[in-house]
Task: inverse folding
């Protein structure tokens, strides 16, 4: 079975560490790539520069508060790109602002998750993401 | 019967000729006419009797007694002519025929009488008597004819004269009067003759010369009466006998008495004389016989005259009574009228004083307006809408624009109106003319060129029939500056508030991010390394976890606090009963655990944000339960209307608060107890305060330590809502 490719766009190394730790222990075989800012994420997706050989992700986990290009800009570019727009984008953010929530969905985010506080809850949420998107959902075909 | 000038009705008629009517002496009524006719018939009848006597040889018919001398046939003829023609004349006075016949007869008889008189006076025997007797077929020798007695001739002469006078000059008063007078003389003369016959005194009816026959004397009396009756009651002698006056009545009565007495006396005397009674007895009897008719007559007079007088007296009294009634009525009317006049006078007085009052008020009103006009802090102007020049204005009006009174008199509105406002002002003038008033702001330029903000209130007034503008200029330049400054500050405040809100929001929001990492990793640290490091490390990790968790809670509270204003909903009618139920539902666990009893009074419906009121009540009740003493908490919620606001109260029997903390407890993160005693961040009451203030109310506390607290908050009552 082919490993599921995940792109995590997240600038907080703590969160990156926590998430990658979680996914590593996951039941489904996956490859997690990390982009630390918006520009990098776009370059990765378009296989530009050093990402010429980057895999096409099956799922994107996108934080809204990221340097250079913020999360919503990245989301808009993805969803306006006829090639990329099929890739499900899960917004994972600390913001519970209504404004952020509505704007994200208006830009066709596939779901919106608020980063939980506390280790146990964090783990539970990550596990449910993994469970839902990797096993329940039938993802569109890649390349 | 007399008119105002002592003239009778018929006189008035004849004088003025208003009516075409028969001669006045015949117009005096049916009674007299009848009397004339009767008298004429008697006269003619006596003549006829005489004639029959002579023709048939029954001399008594011409003499009325065998001892008496008979009337001569000529006299009989004369009587028939006079009586017959006069009857004819009186019967139908409108026909000329009767009148002509009467006149002819009268002249004829007059002629015979004259001839006889001449014969008597001159002693020349003309033989007229025999001549006429011959014509009539009577033998003059059979009756011892001679000239007719002089008294008879004179009587005929007088009677015929009276008749002719009346026939020829009937419309003249004097002629009628004279005619009646002559007739009266005839009557008197012949009455004497009749008395002579009555008393058997020959001297009285002719003596030894030529006596007058009894029927002739009677005929003359009757003929005289006929003429007098023809003349009528307007003239002497009837004038003094007829009428309803008491004097006329008395005259009639006495005439009757005299007649009756004379007649009775004469008759009795004759009878007694025939019976040959002696003189003494005769006198006594005649005296007695006087008394009887006299008594009857006197009684009659007394009855008639007295009755008349009594009636008159009664009528007078009745008239007087009526007069008195009329007078009384008149007095009443006068009094009534006087009363009315008094009332009208009173009204008039009142009206006058009212009018004075009105004038007084008008004057006062004028004074008030004048002082208002002169001392007003605003410019007041009366402006002619056509020229736009002020007809009248107060000192402020020109002063605030920097002009003298003289200069301002000549200025049009557009001379001091700022140029950029000209068009607008023209529109305002049109509007005032159309709608009668307008309020607007404009810019005026003072004499030295400065611009002033002016609030103008204009309305139209009608002064002496023409429309003028009554304008009030209020210089609001200073006010405008202050307002602008205020608005600027308010905007600044709003901005800084918004910034502050934003700051709190962003700060708390952005703080979450690193804090989350701290919490997650300290927990991870504790999980992975607890017991693997030394004891101190375990303790430090525990402090870090605690502090970061508490900080997370504070940041959450701060977020909630800032959301009171940023996430508040618009106010709507809110039923506080429902809201309280909702709050109690949320507190179900705490209530059950503590065994709290929550009671309530009826709560109103107010204009509010329902979820915030729920949060408010929930916070207060939750505090009441949380800060309890040993016994189970008792909480009572009530509300009462106080002027224009509702004051809610939440009363508990908890630990209470010392007065010095009454203010502090509502401040952010202010706590009176350690987290160990009573957990919490100290945000609850600060949020309550913010919610109440957002609703335009106030929150405060009354409390006594160890007894309990009452938290009050007020919500303004708005129209349409606020009933229980």
Result:
């Amino acid at each position: 079975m082919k490993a599921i490719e995940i792109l995590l766009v997240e600038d907080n190394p703590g969160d990156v560490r926590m998430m990658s730790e979680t996914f590593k222990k996951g039941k489904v075989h996956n490859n997690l790539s990390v982009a630390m800012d918006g520009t990098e994420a776009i370059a990765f997706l378009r296989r530009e520069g050093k990402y010429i050989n980057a895999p096409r992700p099956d799922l994107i986990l996108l934080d809204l508060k990221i340097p250079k290009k913020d999360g919503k800009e990245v989301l808009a570019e993805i969803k306006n790109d006829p090639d990329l727009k099929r890739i499900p984008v899960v917004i994972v953010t600390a913001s519970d602002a209504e404004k952020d929530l509505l704007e994200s969905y208006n830009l066709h985010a596939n779901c919106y998750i608020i980063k939980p506080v506390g280790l146990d809850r964090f783990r539970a949420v990550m596990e449910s993401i993994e469970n839902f998107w990797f096993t329940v959902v039938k993802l569109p075909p890649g390349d | 019967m007399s008119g105002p000038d002592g003239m009778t009705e018929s006189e008035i008629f004849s004088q003025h000729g208003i009516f075409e009517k028969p001669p006045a002496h015949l117009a005096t009524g049916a009674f007299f006419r009848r009397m004339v006719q009767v008298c004429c018939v008697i006269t003619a009848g006596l003549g006829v009797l005489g004639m029959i006597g002579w023709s048939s040889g029954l001399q008594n018919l011409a003499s009325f007694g065998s001892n008496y001398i008979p009337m001569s046939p000529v006299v009989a003829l004369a009587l028939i002519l006079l009586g017959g023609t006069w009857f004819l004349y009186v019967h139908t006075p409108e026909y000329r025929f009767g009148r002509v016949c009467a006149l002819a007869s009268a002249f004829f008889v007059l002629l015979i009488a004259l001839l006889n008189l001449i014969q008597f006076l001159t002693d020349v025997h003309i033989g007229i008597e025999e001549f006429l007797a011959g014509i009539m077929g009577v033998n003059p020798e059979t009756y011892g004819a001679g000239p007719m007695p002089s008294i008879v001739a004179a009587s005929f002469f007088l009677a015929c004269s009276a008749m002719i006078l009346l026939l020829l000059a009937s419309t003249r008063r004097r002629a009628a009067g004279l005619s009646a007078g002559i007739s009266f003389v005839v009557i008197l003369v012949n009455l004497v003759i009749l008395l002579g016959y009555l008393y058997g005194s020959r001297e009285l009816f002719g003596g030894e010369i030529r006596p007058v026959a009894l029927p002739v004397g009677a005929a003359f009396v009757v003929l005289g009466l006929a003429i007098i009756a023809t003349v009528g009651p307007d003239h002497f002698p009837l004038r003094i006998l007829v009428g309803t006056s008491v004097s006329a009545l008395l005259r009639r009565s006495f005439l009757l008495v005299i007649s009756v007495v004379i007649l009775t006396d004469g008759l009795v005397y004759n009878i007694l004389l025939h019976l040959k009674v002696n003189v003494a007895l005769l006198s006594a009897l005649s005296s007695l016989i006087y008394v009887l008719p006299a008594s009857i007559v006197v009684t009659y007079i007394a009855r008639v005259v007295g009755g008349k007088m009594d009636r008159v007296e009664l009528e007078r009294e009745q008239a007087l009574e009526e007069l008195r009634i009329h007078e009384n009525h008149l007095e009443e009317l006068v009094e009534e009228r006087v009363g009315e006049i008094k009332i009208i006078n009173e009204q008039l007085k009142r009206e006058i004083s009212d009018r004075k009052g009105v004038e007084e008020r008008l004057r006062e009103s004028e004074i008030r307006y004048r002082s208002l006009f002169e001392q007003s802090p605003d410019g007041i102007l009366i402006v002619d809408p056509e020229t736009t020049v002020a007809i009248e204005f107060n000192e402020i009006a020109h002063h605030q624009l920097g002009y003298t009174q003289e200069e301002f008199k000549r200025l049009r509105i557009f001379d001091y109106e700022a140029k950029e406002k000209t068009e607008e002002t023209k529109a305002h003038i049109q509007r005032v003319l159309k709608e009668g008033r307008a309020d607007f702001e404009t810019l005026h330029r003072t004499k030295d060129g400065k611009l002033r903000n002016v609030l103008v209130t204009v309305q139209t007034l009608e002064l002496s029939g023409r429309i003028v503008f009554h304008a009030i200029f209020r210089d609001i330049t200073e006010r405008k500056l202050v307002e602008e400054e205020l608005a600027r500050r308010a905007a600044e405040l709003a901005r800084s508030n918004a910034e502050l809100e934003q700051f709190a929001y962003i700060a708390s929001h952005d703080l979450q991010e690193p804090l989350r990492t701290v919490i997650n990793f300290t927990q991870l640290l504790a999980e992975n390394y607890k017991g693997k490091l030394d004891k101190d490390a375990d303790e430090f990790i525990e402090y870090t976890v605690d502090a970061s968790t508490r900080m997370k809670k504070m940041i959450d509270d701060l977020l909630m606090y800032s959301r009171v204003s940023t996430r508040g909903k618009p106010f709507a009618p809110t039923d506080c009963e429902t809201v309280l139920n909702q709050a109690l539902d949320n507190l179900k666990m705490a209530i059950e655990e503590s065994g709290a009893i929550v009671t309530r009074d009826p709560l109103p419906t107010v204009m509010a944000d329902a979820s915030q009121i729920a949060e408010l009540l929930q916070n207060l009740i939750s505090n009441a339960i949380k800060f309890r003493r040993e016994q189970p908490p008792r909480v009572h919620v009530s509300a009462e209307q106080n002027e224009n606001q509702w004051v809610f109260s939440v009363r508990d029997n908890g630990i209470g608060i010392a007065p010095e903390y009454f203010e502090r407890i509502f401040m952010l993160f202010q706590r009176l107890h350690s987290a160990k005693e009573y957990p919490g961040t100290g945000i609850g009451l600060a949020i309550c305060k913010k919610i109440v203030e957002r609703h335009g109310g106030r929150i405060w506390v009354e409390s006594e330590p160890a007894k309990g607290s009452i938290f009050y908050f007020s919500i303004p009552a708005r129209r349409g809502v606020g009933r229980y």
Chain A is about 40% helix and 15% strand. The mean pLDDT of chain A is 86.
